[in-house]
Design goal:
This protein is an all-beta fold. 0% of the residues lie in helices and 59% in strands. The protein is built from no helices and eleven strands. The protein is elongated, with a radius of gyration of 15 Å. The mean pLDDT is 95.
């Protein structure tokens, strides 16, 4: 019911910048939080940054001061501005959103959802 469309990944040199975007669509009643996770080969998926609809933000220690998460609630879109990229930032980045769908009629009650994007590769290399 909820689809996440990501864009902005690519290959950049160390010290470069990328801006990731993720737009959610579907029968969305509300989004409680959106965030970015990443997974490097052989490593577990980890939270990079998250933001709630109210604006509360969390960052992984490894990206604080370099990455900035923001959102456009009207567009159900979250962004991740990545500056001063390092080779260790290389990973597949996944967008995630959770919230509620439905509620458009009495026989379509609200339901919780949690959706993942398809992932976008970010490679930092000289």
């Amino acid at each position: 019911q909820v689809q996440l469309v990501e864009s902005g990944g690519g290959l950049v040199q160390p010290g470069g910048s990328l801006r990731l975007s993720c737009a959610a669509s579907g029968n969305i009643f509300s989004i409680n939080a959106m965030g970015w996770y990443r997974q490097a080969p052989g490593k577990p998926r980890e939270l990079v940054a998250s933001i709630t609809s109210g604006g509360s933000i969390n960052y992984a220690d490894s990206v604080k001061g370099r990455f900035t998460i923001s959102r456009d609630n009207a567009k159900n879109t979250v962004y991740l501005q990545m500056n001063s990229l390092k080779p260790e930032d290389t990973a597949v980045y996944y967008c995630h959103a959770d919230g509620e769908v439905g509620g458009s009629s009495w026989n379509d009650p609200l339901e919780l959802f949690g959706s993942w994007g398809q992932g976008t590769q970010v490679t930092v290399s000289s």
